[in-house]
Predict the 3D structure of the following.
Amino acid sequence: MPAADRISAYGAALHAALRGRHTLAPLIEQDATLTVGDAYAISLDFLARRLAEGEKVVGKKIGATSKAVQDMLGVHQPDFGFLTDWMWITGDIDIAGKALIAPRAEAEIAFFLKSALNGPGITAEDVLAATACIAPCFEIVDSRIRDWNIGIVDTVADNASCGVFVIGDERIDPQGLDLPALHVSVTKNGAPLSEGVGAAVQGHPAQAVAWLANTLGAHGVTLDAGDVILSGSLVPLAPAVAGDRFEMTLRDGARPIGRCVANFV
């Protein structure tokens, strides 16, 4: 099959899996010659099909930034995906309505950009200068690949295994905060689940965003003013089913500065 046709076929298959709420055999098993570059091309084809249906890009996400998540998924380099307005949840998370198959919750710090970042050469300091505010966030990752049997090619092609996301109400000025030292605690159904710190994502959440800006720059894509950027999970992923309620609290030292809830129905 010609390269362009192969990319289109896998993009169409992932789009059908999303809309039909079903899984596929790992793409790398279907075609062992697929590269990470191919996977990003498939991801863009997958995205284009969603945009053609009326979705709008509202930001980007970084995946597999922390060692805990890399070890869990067997993926040992970061990746990126796109966020659309359809994925942004402002109330309960309707698992069936959002076509989630095997969702997992991860606690993150979201960045709201006030100016664009165009790599290469972007630093963590550039990211902070371009950031209007940060907020606590749950990304709900999901996989259109059967049984979460993914490597880097499969997760990249599948929009970095993104499902939906929820952002807490607080908008926090990052200036003066020690972002690597920010502490997150997560509960599931009222019971303590996990804890982490900002340093879990590449040593500094803003450094993770800088990596994204520089990586996207190599693909001719910018981080734009108004974008929401999910900077990567601070804690291990946790499976979710209908009826589960996750809460995260973000703290600067002992001081709570933000809270986010992911309630699944």
